[in-house]
Amino acid sequence: MTPFPTRGQQARRRHHWWISSLCGAVICSVGLLTASIATGQSLQREARGGQIAKTADTSSNGTVTVALPPNDMPNYIFPILQPASDFPADTLWFIAQMWRPLYWFGVGGGSAFNESLSLAYPPIYSNGGRTATIKLKDWKWSDGKSITTRDVQFFMNMLLVEKDNSANYIPGNFPDNVTSIRYDNSTTFSITFNGVYNQNWLLYNQLCALFALPQHAWDKTSSGGKVGNYDMTPTGAKSVYNYLNSQSLNVLSYQSNPLWQVVDGPYRLESYQANSEYTLVPNRGYSGPDRSHVSKVEFLNYTSDQAEYIELLAGRVDYGYIPFADAPGDRRVADEGYTISPWPQGGMNYAVYNYSNPTVGPLFKQLYIRQAIQYLIDQPAYIHAALDGYGVPDFGPVPAFSSQVIFNGLPEGDPAQQRNPYSYSVTSAKTLLESHGWNVVPNGVDTCRDTGTGTHECGAGIKKGKELSFQFLYASGVLQYKVESQALASAASEAGVQVVQNVNADSQVIADALPCKAGSSCNWQVAYWYLSGWQYGMWPINYPLATIVFGCGGIYAGGYCSPTLDKLMASASTSPTIKGLYPYEDYVSKYLPVMWLPLQPYELAAISDHLHGAVPQNTEDLITPEFWTLSS
Q1: Which of 161, 425, 530, 590 is least surrounded by Cβ atoms within 10 Å, i.e. has the fewest?
Q2: SS3 string of 384-437?
């Protein structure tokens, strides 16, 4: 691979009754909850909530207020995203509004490739399918400078030296599978891969991660330094990355830092208040098909979904959501002038096992234990009680959600695999554990009786008397996660499996749930964050081959590693048809690298009747506020 030019060339992420009783008790207590929002913020938001346009077609008029998911304030702004910040508030509702990747996905309510909103034309393949040639459109930065292949080269040079710090990286995938990059001129470049891959996979899962970044403004190593061509050597590229990363970590400087004002997306940052709110205003130099029709988009952060719900009922949010626990009373919200719109999402939902944890890792590495735990999860009951009927059971990478992408006439999910291989059964869980050497103690704690690695023994690394107990860490502020966690603990206790519940802020759960590194404490055991699992959207997964999640060396499945699964995913990436995905889907469903939980809608959106253009909501979890309008 030749990303850096030579000197000569340098001239470039229980029971039904028990659950129902719990939900009823929690819902009844909602009236006693108080929103953890400062009085000044509430008054400020109330005032802004009244700023609506008089007509739907008046340009640059009015402020739209949008509720962020609970405790999901973005805390990273640099588009080479770190794993700990890889969730929708950072990527899709923040970074992607200011810096667009070369390729955009989502058309209407689906997740198809959107050429109109992309900075580049579709790739053209040559060299037997190994080389993708990409031509940039005539777009400009907000300061009037043209976007060129030098900006793509700037991005790539930093990515190549800091790929381990990128949320999108997994060894063997992009950019490791790139053998060379050639920058032909200011508008055209080509990437040659180390093999012939499925072209849908390349576009949807590899090339979708490409950005152009403003080299003319960002290629520097300090705030007082001059812009240069530092990125053209590995050492210089690392220095530039370190500088930009340090600036991104300094959230208090976001609104004053001139770096973040050079954008190519439809919006730029006007204000940022840590843990509170941020405001985007139109980029008047935006090159896309439509510029913003509203003067501001204000994103509000809340400590819980109940705090947001109180503001919603007061009419202070234009684009908010109803907590699933309050869905039975959605008529109240509708009466306040909102349209209720479940936001479907394509993806998968799960809690993550920590296979590297010294205490419970040996337990989770046993397939029969993961199977027993899965038998204890009553997904239909969770959907009914915790999600008010919204959502679908999930037991693999492509659950039976609607609006699946169709590739050459075939759905991305194997129709033959749309059934649960581990339907809820406490009896089945107990039988599995007893047959593998455990003393099963219903309403107590099971202990290992027969040590060893034989067919009917507890398994490698599990000592005699070891208790079958683990901690379940979930995100605070989201009521259905509490309901699901408590339901799991109740059902598990019937089989003698002890589930200890812990709770923390969503951003902290995500930060904690990264793979364990040498010398780290590695304390977390099972983690479940807001919209846990993986939602297909933008980058890096649109074609549902989740190598970054399940591959050996992946950063989102707690250190899970299966050479067999790696081979299946490699085969799917080169298969010319969607059928190549089906064996991978079957394996993941049966071998349970994660704890499968129901896939909920992204949110039960409540959209003000004054706000137009926000529906249909696509399965990519994307928003495109530049198409929104306000009316009286």
Answers
A1: 590
A2: HHCCCCCCECCCCCCCCCCCCCEECCEECCCHHHCCCCCCCCHHHHHHHHHHCC
Q: What is the DSSP string of 102-141?
A: SSEE--TTS--EESTT-SBPPPEEEGGGTEEEEEB-S-B-
Report the C-alpha gap between 532 and 510 in whole angstroms: 9
Cβ 565 vs Cβ 588: under 8 Å: yes
In sequence order, which residues have a C-beta less than 8 Å from that of residue 363 and are 6 or more positions away?
369, 462, 466, 468, 470
Q: Which of 415, 377, 335 is nearest to 585 (CA)?
A: 415
What does the pLDDT look like over 373-409, one tens digit per residue?
999 999 999 999 888 888 889 999 888 765 666 666 7
Q: What is the pLDDT of residues 318-328, one digit of tens each?
A: 999 999 888 88
| Token duo for residue 107 | 């058309």
Question: What is the rounded CA–CA span in Å between residue 82 and residue 214?
Answer: 19
Length of the chain: 632
22 DSSP assignment: H
Q: What is the C-alpha separation between 527 and 624, in angstroms, rounded?
A: 31
CB 285 within 8 A of CB 140: yes
Name the one residue in this structure whose structure tokens are 């739209």: 64
The answer to whether the beta carbons of residues 592 and 421 sit under 8 Å apart is: no
Backbone angles phi, psi at 134, to 5 degrees: -120, 130
Q: Residue 192 and residue 128: Cα distance in Å, rounded?
A: 11
Neighbours of 476 (CB within 10 A): 18
Q: Which amino acid is residue 520, in one-letter code?
A: S
Q: Does the predicted model carry a pTM greater than 0.85? A: no
Q: Would you put residue 477 in left (φ > 0), alpha (ψ -120 to 50) or beta?
A: left
Record the tokens describing residue 562, joined without a space: 């299966």
